[in-house]
Amino acid sequence: MSAISIHGLSKTFRGKRxxxxxxxxNLDLEIEQGEIFGFLGPNGAGKSTTIKTLMGLxxxxxxxxxxxxxxxxxPDARRHVGFLPENPAFYEYLSAAEYLNFVGRTFSMDASxxxxxxxxxxxxxxxxxxxxxxxxSYSKGMVQRVGLAQVLLHNPDVYILDEPMSxxxxxxxxxxxxxxxxxKGRGKSVFFSTHITSDVxxxxxxxxxxxxxxxxxxxxxxxxxxxxxxxxxxRHVTAGSTTPEVIQVTKESLSAKLSELQASGSxxxxxxxxxxxxxxxxxxxxxxx
Length: 289
Ligand SMILES: Nc1ncnc2c1ncn2[C@@H]1O[C@H](COP(=O)(O)OP(=O)(O)OP(=O)(O)O)[C@@H](O)[C@H]1O
Ligand SMILES: [Mg+2]
Hints:
This protein is 33% helix and 30% strand. It has 289 residues and is an alpha/beta fold. It folds into two domains: 4-225, 3-Layer(aba) Sandwich (Rossmann fold); 230-276, Dna Ligase, domain 1, CATH 3.30.1490. The strands form three sheets. Strands 6-7-8-3-9-10 form a six-stranded mixed β-sheet, sandwiched between helices. Strands 2-1-4-5 form a four-stranded antiparallel β-sheet, covered by helices on one side. The chain has a three-stranded antiparallel β-sheet with strand order 12-11-13. The two termini are 34 Å apart. The model has no long low-confidence stretch (mean pLDDT 93). Bound molecules: adenosine-5'-triphosphate (ATP) and magnesium ion. Magnesium ion binds at residues 47-48, 86, 162.
């Protein structure tokens, strides 16, 4: 059973004067259990539309999806899901501790477990000192951290996160990456959206690129790294010299260049691949549109 299984999902929004926006076109996607999947796309690509549909916040125009084998039209599908919405907004007149208490009770956590987990996640997200302050006094990044705290509180199996690193400082971003890697270590499944490629590169198993409502490609991140070799950097010392020199060669000319260096008595120290990084890969796909 896949963690998330999406079949032919489409969504067309209809505006007031009959204007139609095709936000999602025939999306198919399987997220395996224990997988970390990065859903990458530029602004307006359809990432939040997909996520809102999975969470039952909007109805698809056509198509269907399952979460842990349960159809998204049933609330059962979301019982074991931690969800972080885009731009989370919470009850402003509750404190973070009160809000987590509310969330925990919604998920039927027992009182002692709830108290223990609440303390754990508030400390993890550096909100412990602010836990009694009203959420209305929180900064943007602090609100985002509350969103992440409520995601982790009830220890769900599947995590659906709409731009989890958004609004966070570098320490917060790195914390979210560590949290995602920890979830992976515990066999959890994570589906998160972003438009920042470096967020994906360091944590994801696979990445899907969505542009104008269409999934353009789904790849393993390690395959992009291997497939993306654009040339090599050769560090060598020529005969009679003691200073290393660095030259760049294309993929095709590498072996000829190495033979040439050897024939002339040069000592080759290091050959390093030059890679097209995920950022360039992503920009290429988006530009093709
Ligand atoms: N309620 C709505 N009514 C009409 N159009 C909508 C609605 N919600 C989204 N759209 C349109 O659907 C398209 C996809 O929007 P979506 O919010 O899914 O993009 P996104 O990939 O999440 O972008 P971002 O990175 O900016 O968050 C956009 O063209 C957007 O204008
Ligand atoms: Mg969005």
